[in-house]
Every structure is written in structure tokens, then in C-alpha cells.
Design brief:
alpha+beta; 5-stranded antiparallel β-sheet; two-stranded parallel ribbon; 11 strands
Length: 312
Amino acid sequence: TLVVILDEFEHSDQRREALLDVLALLRASSTGGAGRLRSTKDLKARVDRFNVPVMAGAIEPIGSSDADFNRWLVTELVHVEGKEHPGAVLRKWCAQRKVDWEGLRRAVTLGLADRVAELQGAHDEVSQITDFAGGSTVDSRFLEGIHPLLAVARVLGRDPRVVAKLIIDAKGGQAHDVRSNRRGNRLVEVLLAAPITIPDPMNRPQRTTLACLLYPEPLHRFALPELGITAEEDQQHADHVLLWVYWPTASRSELLRGSEFGQDRMDNLPSVAADGDFWVDNGLQKRVGTLGNRKTTLFRIPRDMLRAIVSP
């Protein structure tokens, strides 16, 4: 039996449309309206329907219409008069044991309340680590936020560095998935993943992608003038590479031909690029010389992004 569990299902400006889409899907599935029609070898159509139990957690009740409320069983926590508040009980328990209740919240959830002193020591230890693999790809607040999880990993006998790498890699993937809805980032993805043909050392045509060409470490500077592309290692950020795109050539090459950007005007593409997270203009005029900012865009591409494209 499959159960779909959705957390943090509150309405917000950023997620409103996505939540409404999910609610609409669930409404349709409960009435038999949602389905995917497909054919089979015996020429008889089949319909796959999304019809599974769904649980969701939110600060406020889910949905804003009767159609939603009619399809959900909503439960809310209510304080019982005469009973001590759970927070007060926890504070009292911590006071008796002289432990920091703020630092204990996650430990209680994970069943480690009896090892809180050991957990605090592990937290102090992981807080001193400053060279987590991939740490430069996330901000310092994110790293501080995973310290409690790494402390728990240490107490349970896991290497916090290994666990941190798993979390940071997952964070990078999630962030990339979210950012890819931005048009500037879609442009970068198209540039990196588009199949291109270049000569091999024997001057024979070979099919590859920019991501494959940029992925080797260290990356030696190379230029593909027929595509309007120049790239090299980023000397200031070891986990990034620098990619220059000269739009008058790139816009006419196979990089964009047939893609969603194939019909964009050349002079519009720099503006599209500037909407992405990987576009940088620091020192651009100096580095590209006479080409100028309006015709050339400098991208700083994370190696994790290249790896995701080369080895999905």
C-alpha cells in the first residue's frame, strides 16, 4: 500500500500555485477524474489513476474551499483543560536534569533524551568543523542548521563528515530542481546538456555535450569558436568552472537550435541569462575584451551541476 505524506503544506506566495495543483489533483482522483490514458500491445486502452491515501501536515487547515474540506479529515491539537502543557512538562524535566531544553528539542524527537550530555558534546565537536565537502556550495546558516543532525549521527556512531556530504549533495539537488523553473537557469541547462558534434584527436566527428567537456578536473582552458564558447578553471572557486558564451555565434549554433530558446533574438539572450543563478558580471568587460557585456555572458557553473548532467 502506497501512502503519500506531504509536510509543510501551508499556503504561501511562493508555493500557492503548486499547492493548488496538488489539491486539484487529489480532488479529481477522489472522484475518478484524474488519470493517464495509455495504449497496450493488445490495442486496449488502459487508464492509470492516482488514488492513494494522502496525509499532510500544515500549521493551518489545508485548502480554502468546501471542495477541499469535504475530501480531507482535519485533525488539530487542542489543549485539554486541567492538563499541564507539554512544553511546561519538558522544561521541568530538563530543569531536574540540568540540561539545556532548547538544545534538547530534536534529541527528544529522535529518542535520545537520555544521552543529551553526549549529544551536546558531539554538537560542540561538529560545530568546529569548517571544511565539510561541498560546504562552499551552501550558505553558513544551512551548515549551522544541520549541526544537530550531525551531532546525532556522531552519537549513533556515524561519521559526521560523510553524513554532511549526503545532506549537502541532497540540498544541492533540491535547490537545482527548484531553481530550474527560472528561465535563466533553464538556459544554462540547455547550453550544458545540448548534444554537440566536435572533432576528436583523429579529426573524426564525435557527439558530446558541454557538460562532459567541462567536467574533467582540473579543467584546461579550451575554446570552441564555432559554438561561441570559451571555458576554463575558476581559480578563485575550485568547485566551479567559468564559461563564456558569445551570443551572436551561440544563438545560431546547434547549442540552442531546436530548444525552447531557438527562437529568441540574440540580443535578448543576455537578459535571459541574467535571470539565472549562475550568471556573473564581475570583471566581464575586462576578461572578454572587445566583445563587450551586451554580447557575451560569463557563467560560473558549479561542478555539482555538471556532475548531475553527466551522471544523472
